[in-house]
Design brief:
Number of strands: 4
Main location: cytoplasm
Number of helices: 9
CATH superfamily of the largest domain: Tubulin/FtsZ, C-terminal domain
Distance between the termini: 27 Å
Strand content: 5-15%
CATH class of the largest domain: Alpha Beta
Organism: Penicillium sp
Pfam family, one: Tubulin_C
CATH topology of the largest domain: 60s Ribosomal Protein L30, Chain: A
Number of domains: 2
Family: Belongs to the tubulin family.
Structural class: alpha+beta
Shape: globular
Protein name: Beta-tubulin
Largest sheet: 4 strands, mixed
Length: about 200
């Protein structure tokens, strides 16, 4: 909703608009499984490269360029613009700001007729500019994949998958909301009526 209202300036986003964003990101992440391309990487390789420790497996995803459903053909973007937008907190699908944490690893998947050299230069620039937001104890922690087939209606696009410590903001927010509702015992009767015990919720918290 945040992206639809702030970035795409839609006053009343529908489920169709939300699904459009989700499908764009999912399409980007699974591109390398569906199309041939330079430096392709499958989901298994992505997971292996991006999870330094088994418990740190929560990813933030972003997409660029963000377009509303009707505005496909009017957008022309360059590789520098794509990389800039991709790392922008406003383009992230999770409501947490990467500037409040550090990237352990991240992956960028570019689609369309993109120059490999230009992509690598831009990714290096972004890394140098935001050096303090990357964990320095993991070398070569930015992975790039290229696919020559662009998404429908766009000349080029990029999908971002990042493993950042700032995801804790999201979990803290969910934890606080859970605690507030559990104190009031809101909706609890639905669960206890199905055989669950109150103790299970306390343990989960």
């Amino acid at each position: 909703y945040d992206i639809c209202m702030r970035t795409l300036k839609l006053s009343q986003p529908s489920y169709g608009d939300l699904n459009h964003l989700v499908s764009a990101v999912m399409s980007g992440v699974t591109t390398s499984l569906r199309f041939p391309g330079q430096l392709n990487s499958d989901l298994r390789k992505l997971a292996v490269n991006m999870v330094p420790f088994p418990r740190l497996h929560f990813f933030m995803v972003g997409f660029a360029p963000l377009t509303s459903r009707g505005a496909y053909t009017y957008r022309q973007v360059s590789v520098p613009e794509l990389t800039q937008q991709m790392f922008d907190p406003k383009n992230m699908m999770a409501a947490s700001d990467f500037r409040n944490g550090r990237y352990l690893t991240c992956s960028a998947l570019f689609r369309g007729k993109v120059s490999m050299k230009e992509v690598e230069d831009q990714m290096r620039n972004i890394q140098n500019k935001n050096q303090s937001y990357f964990a320095e104890w993991i070398p070569n922690n930015v992975q790039t994949a290229l696919c020559s087939v662009p998404p429908r209606g766009l000349r080029m696009s990029s999908t971002f998958v990042g493993n950042s410590t700032s995801i804790q903001e999201l979990f803290k927010r969910i934890g606080d909301q859970f605690t507030a509702m559990f104190r009031r015992k809101a909706f609890l009767h639905w669960y206890t009526g199905e055989g669950m015990d109150e103790m299970e919720f306390t343990e989960a918290e």
